[in-house]
Design goal:
Length: 299
């Protein structure tokens, strides 16, 4: 099933009519803010995973850059529900995006808005069983150059460079370090390691996006009885970890089998990775009663 309509500037429009002009300032200057949201089929119909948290982060991303979005939290949430329902979708990926319209001055131009829903995500499906990653020569931007806590359109160019570099070397994924040499994140993923039964992820201050899936995995890790720590990691921590995996809305949980050619753990998805993946999937699809507050009905 393919999507036929897009919510744009307050109304549903046909897919082919959802266009912008080449003078759009969001295109020229990369000024825009977006989210990725998953909708899953379940016993009670399609539900959006942590919709309210995603919309809150969208507004925060704009606020970090000094902008206020033209639509309220309620309006954006309703638009997400509407575009899923109007396209008769169940399992799908949503992309709410707000960007600057045409104008002479980007500081006075108006924002436009769209919510897109498709049966597929924006990234290729991870390889079955896990992926091979390399540390990129491109660094994650510093907080005083571009605020990495915001999910803004322009800042993903550095992630693209890192992923292209990794692919040219035969790797599946890229991992970026910050200017101090600490692990930040991946292309569009947060990163976790398991070391001596402790689940560890880098802090937002290292350059990591405050991921919704990241937060979910940390919560589920604590509930599973794991020690969960947020602290700086260096590349050797990845080499010596018992397990390592990436998380993100688009890809879920992706085990890393090796980093820079060094096998991680047993070279296969470990028990913690497997358990957390299964637990998260059961919650998102409504086959577990845990965290009903994370599932928001489309209806």
């Amino acid at each position: 099933m393919t999507a036929k309509v897009i919510w744009m500037d307050g109304e549903l429009v046909n897919w082919d009519d959802a266009t912008i002009h080449v003078t759009t300032l969001g295109l020229h200057y990369g000024i825009g803010f977006f989210e990725g949201i998953r909708c899953h089929s379940g016993p009670d119909g399609p539900t959006l995973f942590r919709l309210s948290d995603h919309v809150r982060r969208l507004r925060n991303s704009a606020a970090i850059h000094g902008f206020e979005l033209p639509y309220s939290t309620t309006e954006i949430s309703l638009a997400c529900r509407l575009v899923v329902s109007a396209n008769h979708l169940t399992d799908c990926y949503l992309r709410p995006i707000m960007f600057l319209d045409s104008g002479i001055d980007p500081f006075t131009a108006q924002f436009r808005a769209a919510v897109i829903a498709t049966p597929y995500g924006p990234l290729a499906e991870p390889k079955p069983g896990g992926c091979r990653a390399r540390i990129s020569s491109f660094q994650r931007m510093t907080p005083n150059s571009l605020p990495p806590a915001a999910k803004a359109t322009g800042q993903y160019l550095s992630s693209f460079l890192a992923r292209a570099e990794a692919a040219s070397g035969g790797y599946d994924e890229a991992i970026l370090l910050n200017s101090n040499g600490f692990v930040a994140d991946g292309l569009a993923h947060n990163i976790f390691v398991v070391i001596d039964d402790t689940l560890i992820t880098p802090p937002v201050s290292a350059g990591a996006l405050p991921g919704i899936t990241r937060d979910s995995i940390m919560t589920l890790g604590r509930e599973a009885g794991l020690d969960v720590a947020v602290r700086d990691l260096v590349r050797s921590d990845l080499y010596l970890a018992d397990e390592c995996f990436l998380t993100g809305t688009a890809v879920g949980v992706v085990p890393l089998l090796s980093v820079d050619g060094r096998t991680v753990g047993a070279g296969k998805p470990g028990p913690v990775t497997t358990q957390l993946t299964s637990t998260l999937s059961a919650i998102t699809h409504g086959t577990s009663a845990a965290h009903p507050e994370w599932r928001e009905s489309v209806q």
